[in-house]
Each structure stands twice: as structure tokens, then as C-alpha cells.
Amino acid sequence: MRKHKLYELVLICAFIFTAIPVFAVDANQILKQVDEKLMPESYESYRKLINEEPSGRKREYTFYSVKKGIDKIAMYYLAPASEKGRATLRLGENMWLYIPNVGKPIRITSMQSITGGVFNNADIMQIDYQAEYNASIKEETKKEYILELKAKSKTVAYDNLKMWVAKEGLILEKIECYGVSGMLIKTLEFKEVKDFGEGLVRPSVVETNSPLYKGYRSYMIYQKIKSRKLSDEVFTLNYLPKLGELR
Fold it and tell me: Which of the residues 123, 172, 211, 236 has the least number of beta carbons within 10 Å of its own beta carbon?
């Protein structure tokens, strides 16, 4: 009798443990999906960047951008008129700025800002996070994953990031950017989720502020994002003068 009951207990336990799904949450897989949720593999986009100063003065830029893969992006200036025709290219951690009057692309760095304001070049020409960082799960709540991202190399703009991702839809919500010393450099907030079509649902506004730039605020508004096949030739220095012809 005891053996029979023991056998029944073993069967019940076995059923319970096989009925409960086991989830192995991989932080780098979450990060990969966050990247995929933000942008198609190959696309074109239109966006506006606005810098606000403590005095209330504003300066606006409009860009046409194209991106392919996880680490190639090129950008063409549409406005203001004084900047129209300029173009930038990023291949991994290498960046260039093309100015029509100069004719020859010049090297720029990730921590510089070609537009001024709080956004730096790495923010404006953001490649996939998985290309630059390894992720681990720092914390998990009912609604969010909080990831810690460590830079793969010393050439990355930020040594580590703290990233908030909503579990529902894996929508990126906020990023805190830290330097090697552990100092908070800036915060990026992702707002106003919008359906851009073709299954792409993501924040349409990215706002940033920094304790290093008190009273300053910068934000980007994505107006259009659309999948587009692009050749590798587009992402070369020789193509920069012709980038605007893609529109």
C-alpha cells in the first residue's frame, strides 16, 4: 500500500514539473530582439533633431538616414539650409563627415557632436546595441527587464549602459549612459510608441538630458521609417556626395 502511494506521488511530481514551462532568459537574446524592434534590417528614415538651450533658443535639423545590417549607417542633412548637402557615414566605430565645400570626408569621433546639443555622434548615428555591447540581466520586474550592457571595446562612446525594456512587446523605454568612472553621462528616454507600418511598432521620440549640460534638452522625432534594400556601395566614402539622390 505504501509503495503504491509512493508511486502515485512520484507520478504526480513528475507531471507537475513537466507541465511547468522552464524559461531560460538570455540577456543578449533580449538585446537582439530590442534592436530588431527598433529598426528593420535595412531601411530608410526621416527624422528631426531639436536642441533646446536654457535661454529658450532652439535649433532644428532634419535628416534622411539609411542603415543596413547592425553597424552601417549613413545620414544626409536636409535642413537647415546652411547644413543641407552635408552627409555622415558610420561603419562600426569609424565615422566621417562630408562637407560639400571641403569635398573630402573628414574623420569625426563618437563623443563629438556634429549638431551641438546633448546628443553626440554615436547617439545620432546609433548602430545596433548588440554590435557594441554584451548584456546581462541586472533586475527583472513583472513588467520590465532591466539590462546591464558592457562595452565590447574601449572605443565605444559609453563604457556601460543600464537599459529598461518593457516585457510586453520588448519596447525600449529608457537608457542610462555611464562612463568608465561610473559617472552618469546622460539619460535617453524613448517615448510616444507609434505604428510605422510593416509591423514596426516603436517609440517615435527619443529625448535626452545630461547632468553635464544642465538646462539643455535634445530630442529626435522619427517621422517615417520604411524597409528598403540597399547596396553596400551606399555605405562608402565615395558615395557620400550622392547620398541625397537616394530620396
Answer: 211
